[in-house]
Amino acid sequence: MLRYKVFYDELGATPVGEMASRRMDGDCFDAICDHLVVVKRSDSAVKDAIFLRDGELIGTYRLLRQEVAEAFGGFYTQAEFDIAPLIVAHPRLRFLELGRSCVLRPYRTKPVVELLWQGIWNYVRAHRMDVMLGCASLEGTQPGAHALPLSFLATAAAPPEWAVRAHDSHRIEMRRLPHDGIDTRRALRQLPPLVKGYLRLGCYIGDGAVIDRQFNTIDVLIILPVSAIHPRYFAHFGAPCTMGPQVHEQARA
Q: Taking the CB of residue 31, how many other CB atoms lie within 10 A of it?
């Protein structure tokens, strides 16, 4: 229900099948993913709030581990980006797909983004994952409207050992402005908070973007090896592989 409110009611995605009558976003991957949620514990709530047992649901993310994906036919991301060669090239590393990032508009703030990241990072440490990847979205389907942020993201292109290209049948060029025409500060202001957060952590960006007409977005690929994260962030979120097997997959605001 939360994803439907954000993706379809707010951002103009097109429901398919029974989504509209059920007012729920979903696909075949939901049943095999783990779902991270952010819950607000407060007496106040937004209109038509969604409540879980211990508070108002304000954000969610779904997580898919490599071994689970391979047992059920692969990653969602593979439909847009050719990630298979990347995974084959790193047989000793374990990949985690991040998807369906969703936060209610009143709560799209740095503290909530940090809660989401803390939850993801706890999961990464608990399951000893090595690489995070997934699609990040810019609102709208007109590449020209995103010429600046797309061109800026292209400057964070992955090095050869982490390179991934959008499928040629879907790929659109990201480098839409000359390098000297990129205003970095302005570009950052136009990016969603989660994308800016991944950039600060040291992520790489795939080659090419993809228009997702169902979701009314332009998608870029985020690739974030744990080894690329700057150690200064570990003081805040925790060092890699220092947690035991338990993980709390619910964060609270």
A: 8
